[in-house]
């Protein structure tokens, strides 16, 4: 789509609809605007997958900022900031994964293997 009279980048509009929704449930409809071209169905599917991944990233940083409160860290040396972020990013990733499992595996038993476990040695 090109807007007349403007020297703006071309936009691709993709409408993705959820299929196979249960009776009485309104399907999800996404309307995506992007500067990426989608010439065929595979390219459109890739754009929708990218958009879906974007929400995973958004959720990760939301957990990192609000759950782990990394913006409140008052560390004075960069090596300390890097170590703290390395730890908090793992924690945020695990919390985000648990949130995703809770949404996608509702009503199912989740095994220890799916959740995983890690330990941190603060002495080193």
Strand order of the largest sheet: 1-2
What's the helix count? 3
The rounded Rg comes to 20 Å
Would you count the extended β strands for me? 2
Largest sheet geometry: 2 strands, antiparallel
What is the H/E string?
A: EEHHH
Mean pLDDT: 80
Descriptive key words:
single chain; 124 residues; mainly alpha; 3 helices; 10% strand
Please provide a written account of the structure:
With 124 residues, this protein is mainly α. The protein has one domain. It contains 3 helices and 2 strands. A two-stranded antiparallel sheet has the order 1-2. Helix 1 packs across helix 2. The mean pLDDT is 80.
Blueprint (SSEs and pairs):
Blueprint: E1 12-17, E2 29-34, H1 41-67, H2 78-104, H3 112-115
Helix pairs in contact: 1-2
Briefly summarize what is shown.
By secondary structure, the chain is mainly alpha-helical. Helix content is 47%, strand content 10%.
């Amino acid at each position: 789509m090109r807007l007349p009279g403007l020297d703006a980048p071309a936009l691709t509009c993709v409408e993705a609809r959820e299929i196979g929704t249960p009776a009485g449930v309104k399907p999800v409809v996404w309307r995506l605007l992007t500067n990426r071209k989608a010439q065929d169905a595979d390219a459109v599917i890739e754009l929708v997958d990218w958009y879906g991944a974007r929400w995973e990233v958004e959720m990760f940083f939301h957990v990192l900022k609000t759950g782990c409160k990394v913006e409140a860290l008052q560390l004075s040396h960069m090596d300390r900031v890097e170590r703290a972020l390395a730890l908090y990013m793992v924690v945020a990733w695990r919390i985000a994964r648990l949130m995703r499992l809770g949404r996608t595996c509702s009503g199912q038993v989740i095994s220890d293997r799916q959740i995983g476990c890690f330990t941190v040695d603060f002495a080193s």
